[in-house]
Design brief:
Structural class: alpha/beta
Distance between the termini: 64 Å
Largest sheet: 5 strands, mixed
Length: 142
Amino acid sequence: MGTRLDHGGDLPGELHEINVTPFIDVMLVLLIIFMIAAPLATVDIPVNLPAASAESSAAPDKPLIVTLKPDLSVMLGNAPVERGMLGAALDAASGHDRAQRVYLRADRSVSYGALMALMNELRQAGYLELALVGLEAGKGAP
């Protein structure tokens, strides 16, 4: 019970080849467009980026850790500190050693401006050695 789709006409032989010339023309035009547009899509802002290494540095036995919490309150170690008293609290904790490195931690939700304001306060207090603390890749970092 089969049907025949060919009705037996003497049609000229059909050509079963794809004409690729228009396809090649379109691809060449797209290639030229992307060659012109690709350099324009890159960021060309001159900045002097610092070098970073993946190796973590050894922390001292009793580090000075300043934490900026999401509500913008400041902690020195595990003790809360008022923003105006941060310099005095650091002097007491470090024994007036302002060359000692201060490890600065901030919550992910804290704005960049709030972090910079805290860093400026630390610099005004005389603590110029700052280290930003983050998670190592693969240990809880997204």
